[in-house]
Amino acid sequence: MDTAPLLLWLNGNPRCSSSTGLLFELGPCAVAKKGVNVTYNEHSWNTHTNVIFLDQPVDVSFSYADEGTSVNMSPVTRKDVYTFLELVLTRFSKYVGTPFDIAAESYGGTYAPNIMLVIHTENKVLVAAHALNVAAPGLLHINLTLVLLGNGLTDPYIQHASIPDWVCEGPYPGYDDPDGPKCQVLWTKVPTCQRLVKSCYDFNSCLMCILVILYCNSQIMGPLLGYNPYNIHKRCDWQKDGDLCYKQMLWIETWTNQPSVKRVLGIDPTWDFGSCNMGVNQAFTMQGNGAHNSAVLLPDLIEDGVRLLIYAGNADMMNIDEGYMQGNKWWVEQFDTCFQKEFTVKKAAPWVTTEMGTLVGTVHSAGGGNETASNITFVTVHEAGHMVPYDQPKAGLDLMMRWLFNIPLTLNVSEVAAHMHSGEQV
């Protein structure tokens, strides 16, 4: 698909590979038979776009750098990813100028805004150089058009504070008595957590930001252990299902470590694939990286026309503060752009899938009128957990395709058909 858009997919958690997206959630194939083989995924996102599944930062899965090189902060990873994208477009020049989109999940809510910022900044440098007839050798314009953030960690100050509300009064409460002692204790922890987060924001102190992660994770998220963190409807047998609660994650390692797979990928046969790298995770934690506000990096991009979609499964219980549906909704409501007033005034509308005509969630948006998919949109996905493309594959594909082709998610099935027939999706 030479003319199809490019989509960069990033999985979350600074230690984990995008193989989860590739072989478990939305890639063309899904790992099967305990890792012996893969099967065709009929709901793959690459049906209408060219998806790049990128393992980053350095040392996650098979990714590597010169000996002694390490990465422990998003501002460093964004430079690496930008360099990678420039190399891809240089090598595959037929994609230069095609729409470029980013979809990121979980900790990707921190990664993606950083990557978007450097792309947007360098694009402006290229425009300025062109206006002055100054050469910018080696740099290509990346046609950034839209971003999707799924159950992401983006503004910890707001998202941490939402956790007791979700756990005690949400659609699937973890505690059955909001007036009981467990919920009351959780709510008392929020002010201290937010004071620490604000200090991290204000002073950018590494120590203060580390304290945010240590305190908020243990005092607000810690008491919730015992659930499957990715989907409250599911239980986790740690011995059978592994640390990430899905046996398919173990299958991915089995499949990827086959000698035949390594040969095709050009991997040193002595290297072992691991879905997650705890060393990378610790390096990011010890810099307090996950306590920073990534939402503040986005307003200029949105005002310049990059479209933003935030989606969240309403059964997500991810206990490292990324996923909670309520927190994602709260930070979008307070997102400081020219669309904020419209967003706060408008009410959520039902979202019905194009293929099945089934109600699968709600849509809250601003900008674009009724002719496009809007400038800022928040989507709640019913009966989905942390990994929406896995839990609700049909809904996830419908969401991506409509956003990609700028079709409002509020349209019903017949309206979508008429919209596509008229060619307005281009």
From TrEMBL:
Gene Ontology annotations for the cellular component aspect, listed alphabetically: fungal-type vacuole
Any one biological process term the GO annotation gives: proteolysis
Broad EC category: hydrolase
Alphabetical UniProt keywords: Carboxypeptidase, Glycoprotein, Hydrolase, Protease
Matching InterPro entries: AB_hydrolase_fold, Peptidase_S10, Ser_caboxypep_ser_AS
Superkingdom per UniProt: Eukaryota
This enzyme's EC code(s): 3.4.16.-
Signal sequence annotation: none
A molecular function (GO) term: serine-type carboxypeptidase activity
SUPFAM superfamilies from the UniProt entry: alpha/beta-Hydrolases
Family per similarity comment: Belongs to the peptidase S10 family.
Protein name: Carboxypeptidase
